[in-house]
Specification:
Shape: rod-shaped
CATH superfamily of the largest domain: Histidine kinase-like ATPase, C-terminal domain
CATH architecture of the largest domain: 2-Layer Sandwich
Largest sheet: 7 strands, mixed
CATH topology of the largest domain: Heat Shock Protein 90
CATH class of the largest domain: Alpha Beta
Keywords: Membrane, Transmembrane, Transmembrane helix
Protein name: Signal transduction histidine kinase internal region domain-containing protein
Number of domains: 2
Strand content: 5-15%
């Protein structure tokens, strides 16, 4: 990051407010100690105070920007000498009302060079360190802000990395299951051309999703298209599949519906009266997915041990939606129930990408 970024000053209004507060405070003290007439002395010294303050404020900033320069040191020394000379002319050169209000002994002409230099240098340093302090505070503030931004960016990078890793694991788990079942179907001579075509389309879709760095959400209608393709590979003839509501402005995680459908097919038992449901409802403030299926005594997969799909589903919902997503599942006798509810945080869309324009609702339309 450029050094100039760390030297960015506070807004002018901040300087103005600080000077107003300081002058009100120091003015009140001077009026209490020396009377109302001392306000004119303070106003007369104001250009000198501002000059000392901003000379050192600028000097420290210039030091960090370009390093130590003899020209700057000489200029500061000449400024102090000029202040000593002008101050002497005003205070001791000729009698005047301004000098009478500043000098402690206005009626005597005794001049002590040592005391005069000490007093002027003390006055100079009083405002010099304030200018240096203001410049230092601005630099430290910019450093702290840059550090916070860096840590936030680093945290975001780690969060995106974790999301990407989990997304790859999520999709690869699905593609692995699908490939495993397709190989088994091919060995049994049940793999048709339409199944192979759907398999290739879903596989290509999954690879594209795994290649994404961010913005993992996809339009719901895209997910539904690939769900129809998955139904070709895993047909459930008795399935009651319905879609309610407007899908055009909804974005979801890739493979969300596909994973749910795949798990139903993997562990379900389907007959004419199996009562298998797959309902997707798009409401004004939420997306609801509800499934019911009879549990088979034996899994259709080569490896019967399951459960990791639901664990991954719950984990990825929590990571991408947080508390906006809830998942409930239970088994009563031989019926498995699953319900996922996702609240929309930003109006009609729950995603990290811009949605397409809202269309008319298609209430009660079927997917199959």
């Amino acid at each position: 990051m450029a050094i100039a970024h760390f030297l960015r000053p506070f807004p002018v209004i901040i300087h103005v407010i600080l000077w107003i507060v300081y002058l009100l405070w120091i003015g009140s003290v001077n009026v209490l100690c020396h009377g109302v007439g001392h306000i004119w002395v303070m106003l007369g010294m104001l250009p000198v105070m501002l000059g000392i303050f901003y000379l050192n404020w600028y000097g420290l900033r210039r030091f960090f920007l370009k390093g130590a320069r003899w020209k700057d040191v000489v200029f500061s020394g000449l400024y102090l000498l000029a202040l000593l000379f002008v101050g002497y002319q005003i205070l001791y050169g000729y009698p005047n009302e301004f000098a009478r209000k500043i000098r402690k002994d206005p009626d005597t002409q005794t001049f002590s060079l040592t005391m005069y230099v000490i007093e002027v240098v003390s006055f100079y340093w009083t405002f010099a360190y304030k200018g240096l302090g203001m410049a230092a505070i601005e630099i430290l503030f910019n450093l702290a802000r840059a550090r916070i931004a860096y840590l936030q960016g680093k945290h975001k990078d780690r969060s995106n990395h974790r999301k990407k890793v989990r997304m790859k694991k999520w999709i690869s788990h699905f593609l692995g299951n699908m490939t495993q079942s397709l190989v088994r179907s091919a060995k049994q001579g049940k793999a048709t051309a339409s199944m192979l075509e759907s398999y290739a389309i879903i596989w290509a879709f999954g690879i594209r999703m795994m290649a994404r760095e961010t913005k993992f959400f996809i339009p719901l209608d895209t997910e539904l298209y690939h769900l129809r393709r998955l139904k070709v590979i895993y047909p459930i003839s008795s399935l009651d599949m319905k879609l309610r509501g407007d899908i055009k402005t909804i974005d979801v995680l890739p493979m969300l519906l596909l994973n749910i459908y795949k798990n139903m097919y993997k562990h379900g038992e389907f007959g004419d009266n199996s009562g298998t449901l797959f309902h997707v409802s798009c409401h004004a403030d939420r997306l609801t997915i509800r499934t019911e299926n009879r549990v088979a005594a034996r899994s259709r997969w080569i490896f019967e041990r399951g459960g990791t799909g639901l664990v991954q589903l719950e984990g990825i919902l929590q990571q991408h939606y947080g508390t906006a997503a809830t998942m409930m599942h239970k088994q009563q006798e031989d019926i498995f129930y699953l319900q996922i509810e996702i609240l929309f945080t930003y109006g009609r869309v729950q995603s990290d990408v811009k949605p397409s324009g809202q269309k008319e609702e298609t209430a009660g339309s079927g997917i199959g």
